[in-house]
Amino acid sequence: MRYWPTILLLVILAGLGGYLYWVELPAKQTEEKQAVAQQALLSFPESEINGLSVTTPQGTVEMKRNDTGRWTITAPLQTEADAREVQAMIRALVTGKIIRTIEEKPGTLTPFGLEQPVTTITVTAGPQQETLAIGDNGPLSSTLYVLRQSSHSVVLTDLTTKNFVNKTLLTFRRKDLLHFVQAELERVRLTYPTTEIVLYNLSKDKPKPNWKIRYPIEAEADHIEVRSLLFKLEDLKALGMVDPGPERDAIAKTLTTPQLKIALHTADGDQTVKLYQPDPDSGEAFAETSPEAPLYRINPMVIKDLARDLFALQDKRLLGVAPDDIAMLSVKTRDKHYVLINENGDWVLEDQPTAKVNQEAANLLVSRVANLPAEERVIKQAGPLAPYGLVAPTAEFVATGRNGKVAGRLTLGNQVNNLVYATGERLQGVFQVRPDLLTQIPAPHELLAAKTETGTSS
To answer: Are residues 85 and 149 in the same domain?
Structure first.
């Protein structure tokens, strides 16, 4: 048994080797894999990226970012780029991570869909450059195989197809036809074949816009309706483009009178777009910003969606005076009649000047009366009122201004199909309004009782 020390030493060495092979080596490989997993696709920050080239089977689109940060397409033509599309692709690349390296210097690229990649992207950041070829989906739909030129390796990434597949020249071209900031607009002109509407923003750098109609009448504008129109103008985008050339010239000959011409004026200048639908049966519609620019194919429904008549853009609150400008409000229904007077900011009842009125309830009533809008126009001009129950009205409100003169009037008549006929000081004609106000008019004692109950409960 004199060999037992040698045998014991061999056993120890074998155990140590097994530990290194089965424990230390896998742990080191795991650490290396984790390090790779944290590796970014791009080795330079987003702020330094100033060039992008995207190649697909349809061709190559080259883009540059100028000193002001604006992206432009430089090939196959010179034009403005869609900054959102460019930034979306760059952001996806910058935040993209390598899950693992599949193969260094691969012998074949076919298993990864990289023999003929769907997209090849070259990103430039000053003197630095990286080229990435996009292949097939990995084991999961939210992964992509990528051939990374700098490391000559196929890697599995956490990129997704939506940011890199089916990208064409149109994808990266600027498609919004108007570019503006709502607060900076000074004037909007809408020209139709038979009429024109001109809106002015009189806010003068105030936080809230103050839109007025200046033509064909002088009137307050419906701010919600104007804001809705401006949002739709911001969303006006091309579905396709016909660049200057024979095809554009041929189509331009068919565009005679625009269905709508939109002109926006700011301190920096004007923007104009004309919308045409030469043949309604064709399903085609076009927009033109200038004779030198492309013709833009648009959805025909856009023309209808942007159309506004004068009534739609007018302030449709019928009373004709703002709540803060009312000094006295006469309330008359078929079973009650009283007058609220504003004395130094507090409402009192004319026939009970010493009684305590619930100011919250009074302000709510005044606000409801002053802000009641017309929903539909029944007739434009004044005419017989008896058919609408407006000769002997269900309710009538008369507002007196701070100058002692009648400033507004609202009359409610018969109810038909969940709407009530109405006339008002602000708009000429007969309209229909929501009927809620008829059930929200308190009697004098209810105004006083509300105050008493509030005081008792407190």
So the answer is: yes
Let me know if residue 296 belongs to a domain. yes
Q: How far apart are CA 418 and CA 413, in angstroms?
A: 12
End-to-end CA separation in angstroms for the chain: 103
Residue 456's pLDDT band (cuts 50, 70, 90): very low
CB atoms under 10 Å from CB of 67, counted, come to 6
My answer on whether 306 and 337 are in the same domain is no
Same domain, 245 and 168: no
Q: Is residue 124 part of a domain?
A: yes
119 and 71 share a domain?
yes
Give per-residue pLDDT as tens, 287-296. 999 999 999 9
Q: Is residue 36 domain-resident? A: no
**Residues 203 and 287 placed together within one structural domain of the fold:** yes
Asked whether residue 105 is domain-assigned, the answer is: yes
Tokens of 315: 């302030």
- Final residue of a structural domain among 274, 293, 312: 312
Residue 14 has pLDDT above 70, yes or no: no
Range of the domain at 50: 46-172
Q: End of a domain among 312, 342, 369?
A: 312
**C-alpha atoms less than 13 angstroms from C-alpha of 300 in its C-beta half-sphere:** 9
Angstrom distances, CA of residue 51 to CA of 84, 105, 282: 15, 27, 40
425-436 pLDDT, tens digit each: 999 999 999 999
In this prediction, residue 121 carries a pLDDT of 97
